[in-house]
Amino acid sequence: MSPSLTIVMPVLNEAAGIDAALMALTPLRARGARVVVADGGSSDDTVARARRVEGVKVIQAPRGRAAQMNAGAQAVAVAPGGLPAVGARNAILLFLHADTTLPPDADRLIAQALADGRQVWGRFDVRIAGRSWMLGVVAAFMNLRSRWTGIATGDQALFMNRTAFEAVGGFPAQPLMEDIELSKRLRRLSRPACLRQRVTTSGRRWETRGVWRTIALMWRLRWAYWRGASPHALARRYE
């Protein structure tokens, strides 16, 4: 049996972009990919809009990206009645931010990357869309750093087989750096497949806060996390 692809999208107040985000996945869904939208308690009409898209599964989850992604992965692993879903053990999970767009052949690229079993997880290179020329530099360094360290970020559309995801316990229960921590755990199983094909993510975070200011903040937070700072304390600094 060929592996099935499940795309888990954590959302919170994404009404402005959820329609476009889900419509961009139509070709993948047409080829059999499942899409789960895990809402963390949106106060706008994100959920209503997502439920209008035929074939998309929408669930409610505790707020927090890690908790939402874990809930989304669990939602397709268990069938009604609490039994394992058909094909769940053979699935590939892809965790996609609502403001990130996949290559049109992402399903094929992922299947090829994981086909021989030597690598059990991976990520795409990223392009950051926005007005500032610095966003191209940020993306280039992000891709190089990830390829060198074997650590990936959520903006790069992390994917893995379900066996690996469960072996490391899913995303850790922390409010920040959950992608970094998951990468560190997955790296014990294999090096990541670093696909050079690019996902495109929004540069709104950098442009809203200021590109240089955001770069400096993220490096300070990463350094503090490496030194053992609490993810909860770092999340308060980030916000």
Secondary-structure element string: EHHEHEHEEHEHEHHEHHH
What is the fourth-level CATH superfamily? Answer: Spore Coat Polysaccharide Biosynthesis Protein SpsA, Chain A
In the predicted model, the low-confidence regions spanning at least 5 consecutive residues are: none
Structural class, from helix and strand content?
A: alpha/beta
CATH architecture call: Alpha-Beta Complex
- How many strands appear in the DSSP assignment? 8
CATH topology type: Spore Coat Polysaccharide Biosynthesis Protein SpsA, Chain A
Helix content: 40-55%
Report what the structure shows.
- The protein has 239 residues and is of the alpha/beta class.
- The chain has one domain (4-202): Alpha-Beta Complex (Spore Coat Polysaccharide Biosynthesis Protein SpsA, Chain A).
- It contains 11 helices and 8 strands.
- Strands 3-2-1-4-7-6-8-5 form an 8-stranded mixed beta sheet, with helices on both faces.
- Helix 10 packs antiparallel against helix 11 (231-238).
- The longest helix is centred in the middle third of the chain and has 16 residues, at 134-149.
In short:
This protein has 239 residues and is of the alpha/beta class. It contains eleven helices and eight strands.
